[in-house]
Write a structure and sequence with these properties.
about 65% helix; elongated; alpha+beta; about 700 residues; 22 helices; 4-stranded antiparallel β-sheet
């Protein structure tokens, strides 16, 4: 091919790539806009299909009227309700009954001290439509309003679900805008350019749009669960992981521009140099996330495909669209720090060079000190609070939570949140008698019948989600053969049990999968074991910091049951990401003949800045979750952000480097690099002189 034809190809390829992406986005656009339509955040959408509480909810949908929405109107006045207060309550409830199709006539239940009046309200009007449920709750709250010192609050499972859905709505626009703002700020600081930061940010936004379309396609083709949590984390992964890949590519591209005259050739060299590491790291993250398909919990199982879609869309965009844009923009995109052809960057003693040198001088001491520190932090996990109750799952207490607290104080002798039992219609009387004879049951009443099943509402003699109520639910499940026990409290029990099962199944699969990928990539057994041990230690330390801070500092009264599993999957998959960047460069240096200590120091010096920048971006994107209104999101964002920072600035910089120096060529055992002769001790010392 002649020189002129080659130049024509170079000019055409970036434009063709842009045209291809325009076509891809045009195809994805109709589907991306529909993702919100298939997003559901009911508890039963999170639970496994085999759980008792899920079966109860599904059977209730088949009863006359469909699924019920339960609300509780709570009227309270300090010092006691007046006659006018009771009249106001009756009038408001009557207006609600006139506006909506209620099940039965609501009857007021006064507290023993006369300060609180409770009106249970039940309706089948919304069915399973979450938007209609939210509209119902909003309308009830509009009618049941406080006035003249009378406090009126709307609680119950329906109100709790509505308040939770409003938080999940913030995972759309606000989460996206905050993530974009954080990433933009960090890129401006990292690149120190008024233009360059915008290119990877735009590419990440395009990748996010594409991921939404693909996620919708997965839902339609395979029924993949889409929740507010999983779609929000998908966006975070697109921007976090995508920006990481962009940082690595741009850094290598800048290096090549100093050696290669034409941007197209420089980009080709950059892709050859860092492409394998980016592909391997993204493949590891995807493999780790896909292990969640083995989970029993719908929310965990749905998180795997959506997270994988986010990572792969980010990878595709950063290895195709980003290079095309950078080549078209030429060297001027780096202004004012333009890498001129033939120029030599200023040689400065970098922070990571100094840190690597200090780790290399006393590798065993540094390794032991780091291990002790991580182990000490991990002990904090023993202080993690128990499973968070539904009413404690909000950072700022909404009206539904304050209503439930008022009820717990006013009616300490019984639960205001029913336990729901579905029993075969032919055995309804016998089941009702068995329920009333069960310890911990205050009352039980038969409800609707349909499809061969009868609904029974059970009132426990203990507060919701207390140890006594949990014992009552377990007693009912043991006694009622052929019946199913559900309701809000039972759902929380099933969530805890399903998460415990998922941890036992998924964690080993993740470890084995990641380890096998690393063995194939690094042609070694020791280095992969070292990297996996490091990320597990980081996970333990990050979880331990959560245990030290969640209760005493943040004031959280519980921990999300899925925190351990999800934080483990993300920290192992993403942490190994950075290990691949470092060890891949170290292996390159070793293959060029560098001795182990020199290879470790050179790898840290050349990749340390990029890894640090990538770690800061990824930690910042997950830290955005700490600004959300649900405890489970705050805890997950905190643990992952802290874990990424520990991994970036402690484990990769000190522990992996010192372990590599201490092991020498044994780090590549049993590969061919491990069989080269060790350097003399004097030479080893001179590496860090």
């Amino acid at each position: 091919m002649g020189a002129g034809k080659r130049r024509s190809v170079r000019r055409a390829v970036p434009w063709l790539m842009l045209a291809l992406w325009v076509g891809v986005l045009a195809l994805a656009s109709p589907f991306a806009a529909k993702l919100a339509d298939v997003q559901h955040d009911r508890v039963t959408d999170y639970l496994p299909a085999s759980a008792d509480s899920t079966r109860v909810a599904k059977l209730q949908e088949q009863l006359p009227g469909g699924e019920s929405t339960e609300l509780v109107l709570v009227y309270h006045r300090d010092g006691g309700l007046t006659a006018a207060d009771r009249t106001t309550a009756r009038e408001q409830v009557a207006q609600i009954a006139g506006d909506h199709a209620l099940t039965g006539t609501p009857e007021g239940v006064p507290s023993a001290d006369g300060a609180t009046l409770m009106y249970p309200v039940d309706t089948n009007e919304p069915g399973t439509d979450e938007a209609k449920r939210d509209a119902l709750v909003d309308d009830v709250r509009r009618v049941a309003h406080s006035e003249g010192g009378l406090t009126v609050e709307v609680g119950g499972t329906g109100a709790l679900a509505t308040d939770a859905s409003k938080v999940y709505e913030s995972l759309g626009g606000p989460l996206l805008y905050t993530t974009v703002g954080v990433v933009a700020l960090l890129l401006i600081v990292i690149y120190r350019s008024p233009v360059l930061w915008l290119v990877p940010l735009v590419v990440a936004a395009i990748a996010d749009f594409l991921s939404m379309g693909v996620a919708y396609g997965l839902n339609q083709a395979f029924g993949t669960t889409v929740s507010g949590q999983s779609s929000g984390i998908m966006t975070i992964l697109v921007f976090g992981a995508g920006t990481d890949y962009a940082l690595l590519l741009v850094s290598r591209y800048r290096e090549e521009l100093r050696r290669v005259e034409r941007p197209y050739d420089a980009m080709a060299a950059a892709l050859r140099g860092c492409g394998p590491a980016v592909l391997a790291s993204s493949g590891t993250v995807a493999a780790g996330l896909l292990c969640l398909l083995a989970a029993d919990l719908n929310s965990n199982r749905g998180m795997g495909p959506l997270g994988t879609v986010g990572v792969l869309c980010a990878l595709l965009a950063m290895l195709t669209l980003l290079p095309a844009l950078l080549v078209l923009l030429g060297r001027r995109v780096f202004w004012p720090l333009v890498p001129a052809y033939g120029s030599v960057p200023k040689v400065r003693r970098s922070l990571f060079s100094a840190m690597g040198t200090s780790a290399g001088r006393r590798p065993r001491t540094v390794l032991a000190a780091g291990a002790v520190l991580l182990g000490a932090l991990a002990l904090g996990s023993l202080n993690l609070p128990g499973a968070v109750k539904q009413q404690d799952s909000f950072v700022d207490r909404p009206e539904s939570v304050t209503a439930m607290r008022t009820l717990a104080t006013a009616f300490p002798e019984q639960s205001a949140q029913p336990i729901e039992v579905m029993t075969p219609a032919g055995r309804a009387d016998a089941t009702l008698a068995a329920i009333r004879d069960t310890d911990g049951v205050a009352d039980a009443r038969a409800g609707r019948t349909g499809g061969g099943w009868t609904e029974i509402a059970v009132t426990a003699a203990a507060p919701p989600q207390s140890a006594a109520e949990t014992a009552t639910i377990e007693n009912l499940r043991d006694r009622l053969t052929g019946s199913y026990v559900g309701g809000s409290s039972a759902q929380q029990i099933d969530l805890v049990d399903a998460n415990a099962r998922d941890r036992l199944v998924v964690v080993p699969i993740v470890l084995v999968s990641v380890l096998l990928i690393l063995i194939v990539l690094l042609r070694s057994l020791v280095a992969p074991l070292m990297l996996v041990a490091a990320v597990v230690a980081v996970w333990g330390a990050a979880l331990g910091l959560g245990g030290l801070l969640f209760g005493p500092v943040f004031g959280f009264e519980g921990t999300d049951p899925g925190l351990g599993l999800l934080s483990f999957v993300f920290l192992v998959a993403l942490g190994v990401d950075y290990g691949i960047f470092l060890m891949h460069r170290m292996r390159e240096e070793s293959m060029r003949g560098a001795e182990p200590a020199a290879a470790a120091l050179s790898a840290l010096r050349t990749t340390g800045g990029v890894i640090a920048s990538a770690g800061l971006v990824l930690a910042a994107t997950f830290a955005v979750l700490t600004n959300m209104g649900l405890v489970q999101l705050v805890e997950l964002g905190f643990v992952i952000a802290v874990g990424v920072l520990l991994d970036t600035f402690l484990v990769r910089t000190y522990l992996v480097t010192s372990a590599s120096v201490a092991l020498g060529r044994r780090v590549w055992w049993p590969g061919p690099l491990s069989r080269a002769p060790e350097p003399e001790p004097a030479d080893h010392e001179r590496q860090f002189a």
